[in-house]
Design goal:
The protein is 37% helix and 24% strand. It is of the alpha/beta class. The chain is globular. The termini are far apart. Bound molecules: S-adenosylmethionine. One of its GO terms (cellular component) is cytoplasm.
């Protein structure tokens, strides 16, 4: 092949690849916007229980931007934007987008907040949170998931999330206290170390109940004098919090 023909062939191939890539990004972006609409519908249907008719606009904008397809296994990318939990391996799941948006909204975080997540899983919930706050610390008990999550978040350019490997029942004493804590696995009771590591004025959102049965999403608030109030928000179904105390 002559030198000039070779270059033309290469440019053609590059154009083909980049057009294909742009096409895939468009498809994902459309699917993501559809997912956002379905979250809005779920919010309307459950407004009586969750005590709000809309979630924060900022959170809905972020849900429309975070590439969920990057957080699911390769063979699930085509269904990455269904409004449902999906398997991520090791018997674990990435949570339903509506629940991710709702839990994030319930935390009512500020830009300066430092947040603890128990149950890093794929890193998707941490990624959503990281757009709203200063710092996210996320603990994962399954070492392989923690490693994959850390690598994924680094590849996607998330710099304000630290993934820790360990049992999140005990929280993260060395980084405490936190403005907000989110637990993304169901506990049989609220772990006392998490309440202790919550700042005054802070919020903890956690599913509580029996594994694989009805659980309730709970909003726990610590007021300015350290008193705790709790409210049941919604029946949910999460994988169980595991570890030595559960
Ligand atoms: N937040 C995750 C996401 O966005 O993909 C989904 C979390 S998945 C529903 C629950 C996760 O909690 C699993 O990855 C599981 O391994 C983890 N987990 C369960 N018990 C734990 C514990 N005691 N400490 C830390 N992580 C735990």
């Amino acid at each position: 092949m002559k030198q000039q023909q070779w270059w033309l062939w290469l440019i053609g191939l590059m154009l083909l690849v980049s057009t294909g890539w742009a096409g895939q990004e468009d498809t994902m972006s459309r699917a993501r916007q559809q997912m956002v609409k379905e979250i809005e519908q779920d919010v309307t249907v459950t407004s009586g229980s969750i005590g709000r008719g809309h979630l924060s606009r900022e959170i809905m904008r972020i849900m429309g931007e975070v590439p969920r397809h990057e957080f699911v296994p390769g063979n699930k990318q085509d269904v990455a934007y269904v409004n449902a939990p999906l398997p991520i391996g090791y018997g674990q799941t990435i949570s339903q987008p509506y629940i991710v948006a709702l839990m994030t909204d319930l935390l009512a975080v500020s830009k300066e907040a430092r947040v603890l997540e128990v149950g890093a899983g794929s890193g998707y919930q941490a990624a959503v949170l990281s757009h709203l706050v200063k710092e996210v610390h996320s603990i994962e008990i399954i070492p392989q998931l923690a490693k994959e999550c850390r690598q994924r978040l680094a590849r996607l350019g998330y710099t304000n999330i630290t993934v820790h490997e360990g049992d999140g029942y005990y929280g993260l004493e060395q980084e405490a206290p936190f403005d907000a804590i989110i637990v993304t696995a169901a506990a049989s009771t609220i772990p006392p170390p998490l309440i202790a590591q919550l700042k005054k004025g802070g919020r903890l959102v956690i599913p509580v109940g029996t594994p694989f049965a009805v659980q309730h999403l709970m909003l726990v608030e610590k007021d300015d004098i350290g008193q705790i109030t709790m409210r049941q928000v919604l029946p949910v179904q999460f994988v169980p919090l595991t570890g030595t105390r559960e």
